[in-house]
Specification:
Layout lengths: L3 E3 L2 E3 L11 E4 L9 H14 L2 E3 L4 H9 L5 E4 L4 H13 L3 E3 L14 E4 L20
Parallel strand pairs: 3-4, 3-5
Antiparallel strand pairs: 1-2, 5-7, 6-7
Length: about 140
């Protein structure tokens, strides 16, 4: 496939191997608060166990940052396809992976849970970052 570029230079996802080495991006719920409790547990987990959490305000920008290795992972709940479409293309071209919160295949729909990671950060029994839909281990 195609490669991803930033200012004429090829970009790749980070090779960080652990959550403690990961800088993680997220978005905050603004209309669907049904998973707020688990979301806060997940934030607490990452605040204590990662290199830090960041919020840019744009899922597409967050995905591009994961693609360029600036962030190791991104997660957010209840995004629309138009929030992530461009970022997904860049992420995949940079060697990243996209999945739902369970590690399953990303399903494009107008509503639902979305998650992306470079596939290099593990924070639980499976190679995925815990999400508001699952309890951190």
């Amino acid at each position: 496939g195609s490669k991803a570029f930033l200012n004429g230079r090829e970009i790749r996802v980070s090779n960080a191997a652990t959550t403690s080495d990961a800088l993680i991006a997220t978005g905050f719920p603004y209309y669907d608060f049904s998973k707020l409790g688990k979301y806060m547990e997940t934030m607490d987990y990452f605040m204590r166990n990662s290199h830090g959490l960041r919020r840019l305000g744009s899922a597409a920008a967050d995905l591009a940052y994961v693609a360029s290795g600036r962030f190791e992972a991104f997660y957010e709940h209840a995004l629309h396809a138009w929030d992530v479409a461009a970022g997904i293309i860049i992420l995949k071209q940079a060697g990243g992976k996209i999945s739902d919160f369970s590690g399953g295949e990303f399903v494009r729909s107008c509503h639902g849970s979305r998650f992306s990671t470079s596939g290099q950060v593990t924070a639980g029994p499976a190679p995925r970052v815990p999400s508001p839909c699952t309890r951190p281990h």
